[in-house]
Specification:
43% strand
Length: 298
């Protein structure tokens, strides 16, 4: 789809805004420091895209910007401290890449940066408090990945860091208030089942430690850091079923507890923390196709 909409939390209403030039899915959307939104890559009817567009909230219009060097979907996009955006990974026609690119909002151009040590798609990328980026897990060349690596913006280089206890893709990664990263869930190698295990990455030591397991194993879920410091995990796939359940991770105790369930089963949805601390969950898919519904967690 090319359409776009704006949500007003005060009135809980949606209004249409300018349409993208190119319909796409499995793309990334990154809020830039100047308030614009960079949408890059994704899939269309003829495969993965290298194009990118900018949304200007002041005018409600989209405009084309520089094209990436590679077509990308199932990639990640991370806003760096410099204001540039780091894009890594892809899966295009079963071709996995370790390449990485930087987008410069000042020039609207892309430039290549250092290659990852492992090809990946469906991984996570987390900006750490020191400005570096942790890339973990994913899928590539016929196997799920347990490795993780660190991107150093100052040099444009990558270094390996500790391995996770499990291979993971379609998982979530959340930066906690103490600087650690919580990784949860993911797709198991066989049977279409979701993992329940979770682990913590310590950027100081570069090591992973297991923490409490989720109540329900899941993948393609959402994970949102709440103002309380807890993490809300919701939706996704479980044991051969689409989930409406949600649960909370308490970093003080390292345990999970069930929270209120959503009204609709969904996966591949978005979750956005609003200014008042509530979480907006919108769209996604259920067993019958794409969803136009949205709901708020308080």
């Amino acid at each position: 789809a090319t359409s776009a909409e704006l949500f007003d939390p005060d009135s809980s209403t949606w209004t249409a805004t300018g349409s993208l030039a190119t319909g796409r899915f499995n793309h990334t959307a990154t809020l830039l420091n100047d308030g614009r939104v960079l949408v890059a890559g994704g899939s269309a009817g003829r495969g993965a895209l290298a194009s990118a567009e900018l949304y200007d909230p002041a005018t409600g219009d989209w405009s084309a910007t520089g094209r990436m060097a590679y077509r990308r979907n199932y990639h990640s996009a991370t806003l760096l401290g410099s204001g540039k955006v780091l894009v890594v990974g892809t899966n295009t026609k079963r071709r996995y890449r370790a390449t990485a690119e930087l987008y410069d909002p000042r020039t609207g151009e892309w430039s290549m940066t250092g290659r990852m040590g492992h090809v990946r798609s469906g991984h996570t990328a987390t900006l750490l408090p020191n400005g570096q980026v942790l890339v973990a897990g994913g899928y590539g060349n016929g196997q799920r990945v347990a490795t993780a690596e660190i991107y150093h913006p100052a040099t444009g280089s990558w270094t390996p860091t500790g391995r996770m206890s499990r291979d993971r893709n379609a998982h979530t990664a959340t930066l906690l208030t103490n600087g650690e990263v919580l990784v949860a869930g993911g797709l198991k190698p066989r049977g279409g089942l979701g993992r329940a295990s979770a682990e913590l990455y310590d950027p100081v030591t570069g090591t992973w430690t297991l923490t409490g397991s989720m109540v329900t194993g899941r993948y393609n879920q959402t994970a949102t850091l709440l103002t309380s410091g807890e993490v809300l995990v919701a939706a996704g796939f479980g044991r051969h079923t689409i989930l409406s359940s949600a649960e909370l991770y308490d970093p003080v105790t390292g345990t999970w507890a069930e929270s209120g369930s959503m009204t609709t089963e969904r996966y591949d949805t978005t979750a956005t923390r609003l200014l008042d601390g509530a979480v907006l969950v919108a769209g996604g898919y259920d067993a019958f196709g794409s969803l136009d519904s949205a709901e708020i967690y308080r």
